[in-house]
Hints:
Helix content: 10-25%
Number of helices: 4
Largest sheet: 5 strands, antiparallel
Mean pLDDT: 75
Number of strands: 7
Order of helices and strands: HEEEHEEEHEH
Structural class: alpha+beta
Distance between the termini: 87 Å
Amino acid sequence: MAAAPGRMCSLLRQLHRVDCVPFLKCAANNTIAVCFWKRPLPTLSSGIKLGFSHYSTAPLITETDDSDTLYKKVCVLVKGHDKMVLDSYEYFATLAAKELNITVDKVNEPARKIDRLTLLKSIHIFKKHRVQYEMRTHYRCIELKHLTGSTADVYLEYIQRNLPEGVAMEVTKTMLKKLPDHLREPIWNSDSPQDEEKPV
């Protein structure tokens, strides 16, 4: 089997590691297999051997017969007390969605929620002297549409791992399902006749 030399060199450059030397082996059925020869571990002057990771033979992509879940819409609601942090996280989440070719339907900012707490300035006296504390909770909603289950899992895990401190996330998924068999055909087209009583 003849392979383009430029393509083979790029393959070897990608597979080159510090501890393994790749070489080509031609099999009986005219296919090329890439094999690795393990170099001996280098030794420091103090006599300590350095260890390196090596390639695993497990396949990177697994195929299954199960169909992937389809989502019509995935709504990511993020809430926090700092508006600038939410602005930065919104930019990060939309940029990650664009890199994964996920359609961003809309990004909106729901109304903020303000919790006020009024307390006496003094413990026992001067009831007219009070101090007021408030907690402002800002929200940001990112709606994504037409996702597969694997894409949604990868995207959500990525943005959840990079969630800033003091920020909470709530995810709502709308899943598409197959119409059940008993609902596909209208009842009036079925073979069983239904007797209808007419009022007298």
